[in-house]
Amino acid sequence: MNKAEEFFARRAHQNDILLDRADLSVKRFFALDNTVYKEGEIPAKYKELLGLVASTVLRCDDCITYHILQAKKEGASYAEIEETLAIALSVGGSITIPHLRTAFDFLETLRN
Amino acid sequence: MNKAEEFFARRAHQNDILLDRADLSVKRFFALDNTVYKEGEIPAKYKELLGLVASTVLRCDDCITYHILQAKKEGASYAEIEETLAIALSVGGSITIPHLRTAFDFLETLRN
Amino acid sequence: MNKAEEFFARRAHQNDILLDRADLSVKRFFALDNTVYKEGEIPAKYKELLGLVASTVLRCDDCITYHILQAKKEGASYAEIEETLAIALSVGGSITIPHLRTAFDFLETLRN
Amino acid sequence: MNKAEEFFARRAHQNDILLDRADLSVKRFFALDNTVYKEGEIPAKYKELLGLVASTVLRCDDCITYHILQAKKEGASYAEIEETLAIALSVGGSITIPHLRTAFDFLETLRN
Amino acid sequence: MNKAEEFFARRAHQNDILLDRADLSVKRFFALDNTVYKEGEIPAKYKELLGLVASTVLRCDDCITYHILQAKKEGASYAEIEETLAIALSVGGSITIPHLRTAFDFLETLRN
Amino acid sequence: MNKAEEFFARRAHQNDILLDRADLSVKRFFALDNTVYKEGEIPAKYKELLGLVASTVLRCDDCITYHILQAKKEGASYAEIEETLAIALSVGGSITIPHLRTAFDFLETLRN
Fold it and tell me: Which residues in F lie closer than 8 A to residue E78 (C-beta atoms)?
């Protein structure tokens, strides 16, 4: 398994535990959270970049990794991902830098 | 003056006071913060929507108003702005709702 | 109209504008956000206090006012609301104090 | 030692180092932070759930684990803890999901 | 009354209401929060600047105003306050800019 | 290599990857973020303590470690660092405690 497959496998496993126990409202939230990233007036690729910038300014490494992988799936280039991270840095300041480091490390792994 | 002109006039006035007094690093930050929204691999319209989603999850009304107006200037439709706000709500949760109310009120004003 | 009626009237008006324009996912989120506070294993009164402490540590005045009024409706005493705010202050620190001031002012209005 | 005992042992060890060096104001803060969770108008069980929802929306895994264990000690059921996490998810949005995953994993460990 | 006197008068009035109703733990927190800014190994002036930078990255206008006035009382120069705000901007990013505008406006009022 | 040397080596390595790929605006941000901590009206030592308190209330362990090491380089005593952390705890509340534990552990390592 490559890095991306590992990430999705672990995530699926954890979601299974969570959704097995969680009540209906949590299940509905998960469904809803999938819906908002679907192709609409805004193409799916840009929606994933919206998810990425939000995840970065809120400083959630797991969410950053997820949206990078989803953005790649939807056809985003490395340059588009990097421009998104540059906006996150400007909005969120130097406190986001450790998360940018992790993101750029992960992008490097994907390139190789 | 309409709502948008008022907003930009007040903003320009406050920035003048700030930049008149602020030291070089602050001036440079302001310049940098303009640069990241410039047309690049990602079109300027989507960059403003990236700014909008980041501002909404971080719950800054002033920043939300600014990026809505900039997104409109760059050709974003109301539907695109509303899809962006829907992503912000899903990522940021119900604590963002008061800011969504303000945003939708402002959008209604722009429509009229 | 008293303070509480005014608050709910303004809120209802703003929600009407928002929900009139918002897409399906936003409407669903609003429905979901109502569901989680319904009587369950945890009585509705304590669920509103959970909403109150979350709103206070996240520093949202509008949400604080809402959950205070809902908690009162569900039978919470002033002492219970004040103990909830004391927990919020300890978890969230002195940065929450301006919001506690607003909350205690509002509670004083309700008492009179 | 089971998971809960391990957690409290590690925590006690770290607190010892901290409180050995920290000045009087830090020691007082620690004492104060214990006080607010004591049985009062609100029973201790619900106070721990208040601590849990605050910890979840503020996204602190260590604090989540602590308040889950304390809530269990005070007699909270799994269903009550899960309803509390559902409120946290609704208030705090999808950015809290990685912390919910960790919380549900931990609850699964406690059940076994 | 000048701006600073007005600010402290309003603050004192609100604190009176709060402390009249609040329980012992809240009163103790207020006492504690005063203690940490007292002259120690770090001179009081720099402690107020520490309070100012923390308030700015956490984006609390009321707290920013308070620590600016306290820093002035302890002998901080405008340049020292502005350097502190420059650090806050770099750490916290452009989302802090609306609060910097308010801070620089307030500093301008103090100068006149 | 001691703890401090390890930290700076890892940091330099990650920054190299990031800055190799990042666009001009990110490089400029990094340069800017160095500038604000340079000796000015406020001595460099206190500027590092300003960085430390901001990092602590924003709960970034990596940033806390960095500013502790920089503050030591600029001549800060352990007592000054501990007073800074006490202010962070009061402003940011008990949610910062896990980060204080990590900070005090790290300080203990430096002492030995």
Answer: none
Quote the ipTM score. Answer: 0.96
State how far the Cα of E103 lies from the Cα of E84, in Å rounded to an integer: 11
The CA–CA distances, whole Å, from C24 to A86, B83, B101, C29, C35 equal: 31, 10, 16, 9, 17
Q: How many whole angstroms separate alpha carbon D78 and alpha carbon D63?
A: 17
pTM: predicted TM-score of the whole model, two decimal places:
0.97
Closest CB to F50 among E32, E33, E87: E87
Judging by beta carbons within 10 Å of its beta carbon (0-12, 13-18, 19+), is residue D82 exposed, middle or buried? buried
Whether C58 and chain F come into contact, CB under 8 Å, resolves to no
Alpha-helical (H) ranges within B1-112 are: 3-21, 24-35, 44-57, 61-73, 78-92, 97-111
Query: Judging by beta carbons within 10 Å of its beta carbon (0-12, 13-18, 19+), is residue C39 exposed, middle or buried?
Result: exposed
Q: What is the DSSP letter of E95?
A: G
Query: Is C96 in contact with F92 (Cβ distance < 8 A)?
Result: no
Neighbors of chain C with 3 or more C-beta pairs under 8 Å: A, B, D, E, F
A:E CB pairs within 8 Å:
28
pLDDT band at C2 (very low <50, low <70, confident <90, very high): confident
| φ, ψ at C80 (rounded to 5°) | -65, -40
Q: Which pLDDT belongs to residue E2?
A: 87
Q: Which residue of A has its CA nearest to B52?
A: A50
Subunits touching A (CB < 8 Å, at least 3 pairs)?
B, C, D, E, F
Q: Mean pLDDT across the stretch A22-41?
A: 96
Residue contact C18–B89, C-beta within 8 A: no
User: D74 touching C, CB under 8 A?
Assistant: no
Query: Percentage of residues in chain E with pLDDT exceeding 90?
Result: 95
Q: What span, in angstroms and rounded, lies between the C-alpha atoms of F69 and C11?
A: 49
Tell me which residues of chain B have a pLDDT lower than 50.
none
Cα–chain center distance at F44: 13
The two structure tokens encoding residue D91: 């208030």
Chain B residues touching E97 at Cβ < 8 A: 30, 33, 63
Q: How much is the pLDDT for E11?
A: 93
Domains, chain D, with CATH or none: 3-111 (1.20.1290.10)
Instruction: Convert the pLDDT of each residue in C9-39 to its tens digit.
Output: 999 999 999 999 999 999 999 999 999 999 9
pLDDT tens-digit profile of B50-78? 999 999 999 999 999 999 999 999 999 99
